[in-house]
Amino acid sequence: MEAFQLLCRGGARFDKQRFKENLALFDSKKTASHRAEKSVSENAELPTELDFFKYAKGGSGKRKAVEIEDEELETEVQRKPELDHDSNDNAPEKKRQRVTTKGSDVPPPIVSFNDLQERFNLPKRLLSNLSSNNYVNPTGIQAHAVPILLEGRDLAAISPTGTGKTLSYLLPVMSSLGVPMSNSKHDGSDGVRAVILAPTRELAHQIHNECLKLAEGRKWRIVLFSKATAATLAVKSVRDKIDIIISTPLRLVASLQDGKLVLNNVRHLVLDEADRLLDSEFISQTEEVIAACTHPELQKCVFSATLPAGAEKIAMSLLMDPIRVVVGLKDTPLPLIVQSLRYVADESSKLPTLLTYLSQPYNPPILVFTSTQPRASSLAEQLILNSVPNVDCLHAGMTKKEREDAVSRMRKGESWVMISTEVMARGMDFKGIRGVINYDFPTSVQSYVHRIGRTGRAGREGLAITYFTNEDASYLKAIANVLSQSGSTVPEWMLKLPKPSKLKRRQMGKVNRGDAVSKAGNIGRSLAIKRKDMVAGSKRRKAKDKDE
DNA sequence: AAAAAAC
């Protein structure tokens, strides 16, 4: 491991001169990356039926017409504030991100953050913290979600990657809490008042940072839950002064089971990346946290860029009289991400293809996704051995410190090529990421959408390239559909590929996509799934108890 | 379905 780190350092020298040259090159020739990619294709022998570039002349012609400005987005929001039906069947050529809401008595959206002061008496400090952190105008999801949450309603919010979901729940939660627990005005009810759940440590950390920005100037106690903080919170007098806990589910569950944490005063529970937190691997933990939040005035909300039908049903069953807000088309990436699919024949041609790509001028930093931890490590090693500069690696098999260091290098712009696993796929907001390469094909539509959503954030452009081999053929159609739906040009033959079996379609999260909102009675099935998961969860817990 | 992630 140490040897690897040394290698990493050695290979990771920051070559400012080259960096400058690259930037200069790219400012004048925006299409160079496309050309670089095309020249690579000469290396590979393509079977005619898989010759992507034969069909994809000019790459993303359709997409160029789609220029989304934040301002445009808002006018759209103002014009159509209260549409009352699902947008799933809308034509994909809709250029702008539109917002659809569903539910009873939906509060109207805000136009500017200042509206919040009149309508909800938002603390002045929060408003000034917004502007001092350069939050000027609310995004579509913020305009809709903030008033809904401030009215105390439960909410399911679906909005594309990089559209400001975090602020959409932090702002109303902090406003609703009103006065920090440390303030002497509080002596009645004691204990943690808000819990925010996220699926990875890195994401919890990032949410914590955002939360601290809003907290500036007041004595909020906002805790990024970890082993260390869990120990200090075992003391009731400390715990009772906590305002917000941000955590991964399992960390909270561990403390709950130890009896060292009580959540019976929690008034706000947020599930970020909700579909992930409700999937079969996480749901028993998530449910345990939800069950521990016993306060009758508990407000719950779920946020994600994707919400497959199964997860949506579970989410809706958790919420009380919920409002559902969808920005854009569900399970669809932002249109300002230029997406392409790249045929690489087989496993052995992936590395040469990537090396060629990285040997040409490209826009750093880029994020490269692999399917497993060992593949991430060894790919990073290979790139370093091949003298690729500023290569970095991040997966959950690394130590906490290694992970933190990698994130900080990324934030500082020191990494040009970050090799990672799914751990980086969701929620992480590295503003500068120019491109994403799916070195290994994503295993679901949701994974694809979240992975490429690491680029093209907050109105910036981004590039997404997905390698596919012959082995990935059965999943290709589903991903090709995503490209097509979000306005990228896709070769006809990909869309005409035979439908994968029903099993495969379910794997790709595509089943029931059209009629996602439970018109049909699939509730029995979803309950069955839920029960199965709970049994699995309790079995796991029992096994754990035995161990201890 | 499988890997990853969560402690």
From TrEMBL:
Gene Ontology BP term (one): maturation of SSU-rRNA
Keyword check for Ribosomal protein: no
KW RNA-binding (keyword) present: yes
Top EC class, one word: hydrolase
EC numbers on record: 3.6.4.13
Keywords for this protein: ATP-binding, Helicase, Hydrolase, Nucleotide-binding, RNA-binding
Segments forming domain Helicase C-terminal: 350-498
Stretches assigned to the Helicase ATP-binding domain: 146-325
A GO CC term attached to the entry: cytosol
Region (Disordered): 59-112
Gene Ontology molecular functions: ATP binding; hydrolase activity; RNA binding; RNA helicase activity
Stretches with biased composition (Basic and acidic residues): 76-94
Pfam families in the cross-refs: DEAD (PF00270), Helicase_C (PF00271)
Catalytic activity, as annotated: ATP + H2O = ADP + phosphate + H(+)
Family recorded in the similarity comment: Belongs to the DEAD box helicase family. DDX52/ROK1 subfamily.
PANTHER family, alphabetized: ATP-DEPENDENT RNA HELICASE RHLE-RELATED (PTHR47959), RNA HELICASE (PTHR47959:SF15)
Protein name: RNA helicase
Higher taxonomy: Eukaryota, Fungi, Dikarya, Basidiomycota, Agaricomycotina
